[in-house]
Amino acid sequence: TLLFEAFAIRVLNAARSVEEARKLLGLNWHQVDAIKARAVERGLARRQATKIDYLGIDEKQFRSGHDYVSNLYDLTGGRVLDIVEGRTENDCKQLIEQALTSEQRAQVTAVALDMWQAYANAVSQALPKADIVHDRFHLSQHLNDAVDSVRRAENKALNKIGDNRLKGSRYCWLANEE
After folding, report:
1. Other Cβ atoms within 10 Å of 163 Cβ, number
2. Cα gap 127→109, rounded to integer Å
3. 138 pLDDT band (50/70/90 cuts)?
4. E strand segments, 2-153
5. Fold assignment, 54-134
6. How many CB atoms lie within 10 A of CB 22?
7. Phi, psi of 147 (to 5 degrees)
8. Tens digit of pLDDT for each residue in 51-98?
9. Parallel, antiparallel or unpaired: strands 54-62 and 67-74
10. Per-domain residue ranges of the chain
């Protein structure tokens, strides 16, 4: 019944895990999965093709090994638009094309993504007017790697002449904002 399903979705949102919600509701995993599937169908049926200026694309690992899904986000609206299995260039193009109408694709201003070249290629092809913006996490990671590389090289050069002033300073360079 719809009232119970609405309650079950609220419990799923509030619970730490699907297993915890399943136990609270007294349902088995298949029943909870079916409730979630029907809720997604209802949500997708109600969704309207609104203007989306900023998108985000990211991958998430699931299961064990190297199994990934690619996610497309409306960054302004704070919602997931669609998900496809895989993280190849074709998967990303399919994700963009199935989630957005041609009107919506023409209106996208910028797309935030990590530095995965397959995503950049797919965005360039599917959303040629959109700017690609790399996410802060990956930029910080590359900057930290560069700073650490320079610190290690300078420490090695200083150690050769007996100067230990950089020894033990890694934390200061990588974690201390000052």
Report:
1. 12
2. 9
3. confident
4. 54-62, 67-74, 79-85, 110-113, 131-134
5. Nucleotidyltransferase; domain 5 (3.30.420)
6. 20
7. -60, -45
8. 889 999 998 888 777 888 999 999 988 888 889 999 899 999 999 998
9. antiparallel
10. 2-46, 54-134, 137-174
Q: Two tokens at 19?
A: 């297993």
Tokens standing for residue 73:
């986000």
Are the C-beta atoms of 153 and 173 separated by less than 8 Å?
Answer: no
Tokens for 148, please give them. Answer: 């650490």
Block residue for tokens 């999965």: 33
d(CA 34, CA 123): 33
User: How many residues are recorded in the chain?
Assistant: 178
Amino acid at 78: G
Q: Which has the closest alpha carbon to 118: 99, 98, 92?
A: 92
| Tokens, residue 33 | 């999965």
Task: Please give the Cα distance from 169 to 60 (Å, whole number).
Answer: 34
Amino acid, single-letter form, for residue 174: L
For 134, the 3-state DSSP assignment is: strand
pTM of the predicted model as reported, rounded to 2 decimal places: 0.67
